[in-house]
Amino acid sequence: MPAMLPAPADSARRLAAVLPSVIASLTGSPGPVALPRARSAVVALIDGLGAANLSARRGHARTLAAAFGRKDVIRTTFPSTTAAAIASFATGADAGSHGLVGYRTLVPGRDALANQLNGWEQGLLPADWQRRPTLFDAAREAGLHPFTLGAPRYATSGYTTAVLRGAEYRPAASIEERFDLAREVADSVDGALVYVYVPELDQIGHAHGWESDRWIGALERLDAAVGSFTARMPRATGLLVTADHGVVDVPEHRHVFIDADPALLDGVRHVGGEPRCLGLYFEPGLEASDREALIGRWRESEGQRAWVLTRDEAIEAGLFGSVDEAVRPRIADLLVAPRAGIAYYDRREPDRGAERMIGQHGSLTDEESRVPLIRFGAYETR
């Protein structure tokens, strides 16, 4: 049996509940998270800023830290990865419903893995792969004016089209420019719902680690931008600062190469997922006895330092929420999510660039799955 999973959080305290709550605050309706009524709203999603990361560097983020209390924490998705998390944020649905169930997942019927962030550009994912209407569409239907502010390179990407459709995309190159533009939009448009995406901390974390000076410098820039925004916040505007996942640093000596033990790959057709949440897809037609033996070998090898879950066990545990039948085959036959500070790699991969990454995420640990939800302006807790 797999190791005990972390206790699930209340559904109203999850990332998927944030945007419905903001829309409710703008329309005067009850929402899953109670927020005061606001004239306009800004939601900044900071890629890779976990609650533990922020707590450990409070001295470098005085604006955020001053408003960040113990109760200002929510849970992200499983896996704790950007593709699944932002899709849940933007649709209000669990991964088992919207269908983006990981970083690299199997495309049923194609016998191929697809990266959920750029698989559209590679022609691996159909236009309807993301199966749910977005909350930006719902906001527009409710008479609101949704905007997305992000880097210019994301403006027309397949992922943006699939997950953020319904919002007017306005490009802004830097953190500071995005918050300046957010203030302009919130001030000039009643009923504005402004989503600000900040990828810089995650990018630096992957390359240099979240404990690096460069990551701290990016956090200081973010905090200064938030401070400048709040100092001149438009009247009756609410600001929420949240994230899609946290980050753990995994040094090279903590890499685990799964190809070192051929028995762990005997019967495995595809190795998907990511280093902190492997997704193993078995050979079609693998006999039940061979499946059980393969699962047993993984549990014996990795069960002391990882959650080793079959697809059925993960679904039964509610990790993907309610799972549509069409989504079920996208989920790996076996999921391996580290509890310890390790990352899994396969040296048979033609591109081994991922091994250079220091900051990692994807698993169920508190460091990866607990993210801040910090309130300012009209949303500030008094």
Textual characterization of the structure:
- This protein has 382 residues and is of the alpha/beta class.
- The protein has two domains: 11-102 and 115-246 and 364-377, Alkaline Phosphatase, subunit A (3-Layer(aba) Sandwich), CATH 3.40.720.10; 252-360, Gyrase A, domain 2 (2-Layer Sandwich), CATH 3.30.1360.180.
- It contains 13 helices and 18 strands.
- Helix 8 runs parallel beside helix 10 and helix 9 (200-208) packs antiparallel against helix 10.
- The longest helix has 19 residues, at 213-231.
- It is globular.
- The relative contact order is 0.21.
Write the layout of secondary structure elements.
Layout: H1 18-27, E1 40-46, H2 51-56, H3 62-67, E2 73-75, H4 82-91, H5 95-98, E3 104-107, E4 112-115, H6 135-141, E5 145-150, H7 158-163, E6 168-171, H8 175-188, E7 192-198, H9 200-208, H10 213-231, E8 237-243, E9 248-249, E10 255-257, E11 268-274, E12 277-282, H11 288-302, E13 306-310, H12 311-316, E14 334-338, E15 343-345, E16 359-360, H13 366-369, E17 370-372, E18 374-377
Parallel strand pairs: 1-7, 1-8, 5-6, 5-7, 10-15
Antiparallel strand pairs: 2-17, 3-4, 8-18, 9-16, 11-12, 12-14, 13-14
Q: Would you summarize the structure shown here?
A:
The chain is α/β, with parallel strands linked by helices and 382 residues long.
List the main descriptive attributes of the protein structure presented here:
four-stranded antiparallel sheet, single chain, Alkaline_phosphatase_core_sf, 21% strand, 30% helix, 382 residues, hydrolase activity, 2 domains, six-stranded mixed sheet, Gyrase A, domain 2, Alkaline Phosphatase, subunit A, alpha/beta
